[in-house]
Every structure is written in structure tokens, then in C-alpha cells.
Design a protein that fits this description.
Length: 344
């Protein structure tokens, strides 16, 4: 049976109040705080109907009521129909660091979002299939250490410190940079095969003793870029919620965030829209006391990763949906800009 307007307004009032207080809500509270134009007795009857319909729950016989997952779902669906129509009076800071690693910029946005929302943020880091080498740079640190920079056409950059057994002749660096860039620029991971590496080794001259270490590092770098990584920020924010004051329950949350199999599955986008999974809607029992709001971020229109805000089902869905939507749009613009700059 569909909800009439009065039931909708009462359900919304109960949810809004419960989000703020974390306490079961009674009819008298709703009558006092919200101008619904009906008596406390009428509200009580309507709340009883909402409970019978599965939208509210009564945790204790003498207590008020709290939203069920079904109640939250009705509430969230209404928000999702309208979230693009509202904005808030702040802007996300842009990190225009053309030479920064893309994954470092994503982490900065995760930290910012965690700070703004006071929630835990989980991120599926950028994955760009078949990364192509744009440039490799080998820089001296001291007599037996060097920094290896690997940059790809997709804008991702990785750097590695390599220690060698023997000292390196400083005159070798220009030669090595030219050799490796001539052989590897434009190559993908699958093209950096044994034949190519043997060819580089054959032409490496006095660097033959350590050239394998450099090419191995480059190959491992490409493998890492092609793998999906996870990142989390603000994990301890869960302790700010009364639902997680119990240390055992808090530990189960920390264990969940560490579970890469579950997190990878939870963060896998079903489509290109804001997605909200509430409590028991999740296929994972570990998520049944939690909700996650997730949004993809892109480079030039191509999805490369996912952000998620995770917390108790009693979360401020309206504000959080707007915040993650704004953040993912801003991040997508920044990453696309960096991608274009790095292609020049």
C-alpha cells in the first residue's frame, strides 16, 4: 500500500529526528517539533501503521520508534530524485598539482571528504587498464642510490628508490635515460617482455650489472598500476557515533575495513549514478548495521575509481549524498585536467 502524504511527512520527521538524536522517537516529540497540523494521538496511530507496514521499528515496548532499513530506503529514494537540485555554501579545494601522482591527489580528496563529513571514507584507487609508458627518468641520489620515476600516458606517476651494491658513475645517467626511454616509451606491461629486456641489457654497457634491477622495477610498477588498490581515511570517525561506543562492535568495523575482498565488492559500481546501500540490503552480513554511499570518479568521462562514505544506517543521507556528488565531480575535473597536461 502506498504511503499518503501525512504518513510520508511523519516518516520523514521520525528519520530526521533520529538522525540528530540517535534516540527512539515518540509521537509527542514529533507533535512538538514539527508543525504537521495533527494531534499527538493521530501521529501515534500513524506511527503504529508505519511500523506495521515495515517502515518503523520499536526497539523496546515502552520506547518510541526508529526507522527500519525499509524506512531509510523510502527516504533515500526521495533524496536521490532531487539531490542535484541543491548545493551547499562551500567548495572543494582544487589540487592543481600537475606533477603529483594521481593516486596522491585522490588521497587528498579522501582526506578532505572525511574531514567535511566526519565519516570513514573508503576508496577504490584509480585503475587504468593497459598503462602505456610516457617517460622514465633515472636520477642520482648518492654514489649507490638512484630514484626511478615511471610516468604513464594516463597521468599516473610512480617513484622508487633503488639501492645498488656498487657505486654508479655519474656519467651513466644520461646514457641510461636515453637507452631506456628509447626502448620503453610507448610500451605496455605485456610488451616489456624478456626479448626487450635482453635487448636493453645487451646495449647497457657498464650498467649491465644493475640494469635488470631497473627494468624489473619498471615492470613491477606497471603491474601495480594495472591492479586495483584500496585506501581508507578517517577510520576512527566511527567511534564518534554512539552505535559504536562498544569496543567489540568498533573492532568488527575496523576488521571490515581491512577486509579487501568485501571492500572491493562493496565499492564495485553498478552504474554511473550515486548509489546507496542500506543495512540488510547488503549481501554481506558484516554490513547490516551500516550504510554506504558511493560515487564514481572519472578521467575524461571514463570511470577509473569509486569513493564511498561508510557509517551507521543512522546517517545524514541528504547532506552526505550532496557532498560526495560535489566531491566526485570536482575530483573528476582535476584528474581530467592533469591527464591532459601530462599528455602534452
Amino acid at each position: 500500500m502506498p504511503l499518503d502524504d501525512r504518513k510520508k511527512r511523519i516518516l520523514e520527521a521520525v528519520i530526521n529526528d533520529y538522525i540528530l538524536t540517535a534516540e527512539p522517537i515518540g509521537s509527542r516529540t514529533i507533535a512538538k517539533r514539527y508543525d504537521l497540523g495533527v494531534s499527538s494521538a493521530t501521529i501515534r496511530n500513524e506511527m503504529a501503521d508505519l511500523e506495521e507496514m515495515g517502515y518503523l521499528e520499536q526497539p523496546h515496548t515502552s520506547a518510541g520508534r526508529i526507522p527500519s532499513d525499509k524506512g531509510y530506503r523510502f527516504y533515500v529514494n526521495n533524496i536521490l530524485e532531487h539531490y542535484l537540485k541543491e548545493t551547499y555554501d562551500y567548495e572543494f579545494e582544487s589540487f592543481n598539482e600537475v606533477f603529483a601522482e594521481i593516486d596522491e591527489i585522490v588521497k587528498k580528496y579522501a582526506k578532505l571528504l572525511s574531514s567535511i563529513t566526519n565519516h570513514t571514507i573508503v576508496v577504490k584507487m584509480p585503475r587504468i587498464d593497459e598503462n602505456t609508458i610516457k617517460r622514465i627518468q633515472i636520477l642520482p641520489v648518492d654514489s649507490n642510490k638512484l630514484i626511478l620515476l615511471v610516468m604513464t600516458e594516463s597521468g599516473i606517476m610512480k617513484n622508487y628508490l633503488i639501492s645498488l651494491k656498487d657505486n654508479i658513475d655519474s656519467n651513466l645517467f644520461e646514457f641510461l635515460n636515453n637507452l631506456i626511454n628509447n626502448k620503453m616509451t610507448g610500451k605496455r606491461k605485456r610488451e616489456v617482455d624478456k626479448t626487450l629486456r635482453d635487448e636493453i641489457k645487451k646495449e647497457s654497457g657498464s650498467a649491465m650489472g644493475f640494469i635488470d634491477k631497473i627494468t624489473d622495477t619498471i615492470l613491477n610498477s606497471l603491474k601495480q598500476m594495472d591492479e586495483t588498490d584500496l585506501y581508507s581515511e578517517g577510520i576512527s570517525n566511527i567511534l564518534n557515533f554512539p552505535e559504536y561506543k562498544d569496543l567489540f562492535k568498533a573492532k568488527t568495523f575496523f576488521d571490515l575495513i581491512d577486509n579487501k575482498d568485501i571492500m572491493n565488492s562493496v565499492l564495485e559500481p553498478e552504474d554511473d549514478s550515486i548509489e546507496v546501500t542500506i543495512g540488510s540490503e547488503s549481501k554481506f552480513e558484516e554490513m547490516w548495521d551500516l550504510s554506504i554511499i558511493k560515487s564514481t570518479y572519472k578521467i575524461n568521462g571514463e570511470i577509473v575509481g569509486t569513493f564511498g562514505i561508510i557509517g551507521p544506517t543512522r546517517m545524514n543521507y541528504k547532506r552526505l549524498i550532496n557532498e560526495i556528488n560535489m566531491m566526485s565531480n570536482e575530483l573528476s575535473k582535476v584528474l581530467s585536467y592533469i591527464y591532459q597536461e601530462n599528455k602534452r
